[in-house]
Amino acid sequence: MATTRSPKKTPAKTPTKAPAKAAAKPMTLAEAMAALEQAGSAQTRKTYLRHGAQEPMFGTSFAALKVLVKRIKVDHALARALWKTKNHDARMLAIKVADPAQVLSDELDAWAREMRVRSCGGYVAMLAAESPLGAAKAREWMSSKDDALRAAGWILGGHLASLDEALADDWFEKQIARIEKSIHGAPNAEREAMNMALIQIGCRSAGLRKQATAAAKRIGVVEVDHGDTACKTPDAASYIAKTWAHAESKGYPSPAAQERDREPMRTRC
After folding, report:
1. On the chain, which terminus has fewer CB atoms closer than 10 Å, C or N?
2. How many Å apart are CA 245 and CA 254, to the nearest integer?
3. Is the peptide bond before 264 cis (omega within 30 degrees of 0)?
4. How far apart are CA 256 and CA 110, in angstroms?
């Protein structure tokens, strides 16, 4: 009787692991400054100067900054070193790679005072809004005797309307009343910041939308001197309506909810 042999079993192969990638080395200050300088252009410098930026600067575009932010990600130590250079482009990069969880109260105060370009000063307020210090800084800055801090405070208040769900709506109701009462007599930068804050507060909830829109209509035209730029002051009432329509078309219950679902404005813009 013939015997049947069992087929030989092929031993299972141990899956080979892909070699681990070496962690990228943190970018040094010298490397960051060199990258900023290489990306700078004379035309961008002219644009920044028209918007009030001051030397020293390389004229690094926001697109180039975004590439560097993707490479660096978050590095608060580097952010502090970049800020100390007093270079405009370095300070913009500093705000974008700073860590909201590590930023100190005194740092936010100094950075808000020293970033004199209104469009760029808003980025310090964005950083504050992402940090645990946001609500406290808004109250402090809005009551400051320093014009730059008050303007930053209103920008911060606007961002908190989108980001901080813990703040009660009645706090924002009080800010609407303050804006309506004082916007026309406020300094130029603060007036611009108040107008934007009113828009963002009106995008927080349905109730605040109604109140902010009514206040905007009573306020009327807000005059802001944008200098030698093409910037225009948005009409708050129509801008609120337009922003709500866009958010609802995307399935969001409010523009604030849509903003919370996106990459932070500080790093995406």
Report:
1. N
2. 9
3. no
4. 28
Whole-number Å distance between alpha carbons of 126 and 159? 7
Residue with tokens 């002219």: 46
CB atoms within 10 A of CB 226: 15
pTM for the whole thing? Answer: 0.88
d(CA 54, CA 92): 12
CA quadruple 140, 144, 149, 155: dihedral sign: positive
Helix (H, G, I), strand (E, B) or coil at 80: helix
d(CA 24, CA 39): 21
How would DSSP label each residue in 34-52? Answer: HHHHHHB-HHHHHHHHHTT
Cβ(95)–Cβ(123) under 8 Å?
Answer: yes
Q: What angle do CA 157, 211, 244 make, to 5 degrees?
A: 75
Residue by residue, pLDDT tens for the chain (269 residues) are 444 444 455 455 555 555 555 557 899 999 999 999 999 999 999 999 988 888 999 999 999 999 999 999 999 999 999 999 999 999 999 999 999 999 999 999 999 998 866 656 689 999 999 999 999 999 999 999 999 899 999 999 999 999 999 999 999 999 999 999 999 999 999 999 999 999 999 999 999 999 999 999 999 999 999 888 888 999 999 999 999 999 999 999 999 999 999 999 999 98
Task: State the burial class of residue 178 (Cβ atoms within 10 Å of its Cβ: 0-12, 13-18, 19+).
Answer: middle
Reading the block at residue 44, the tokens are: 């961008």
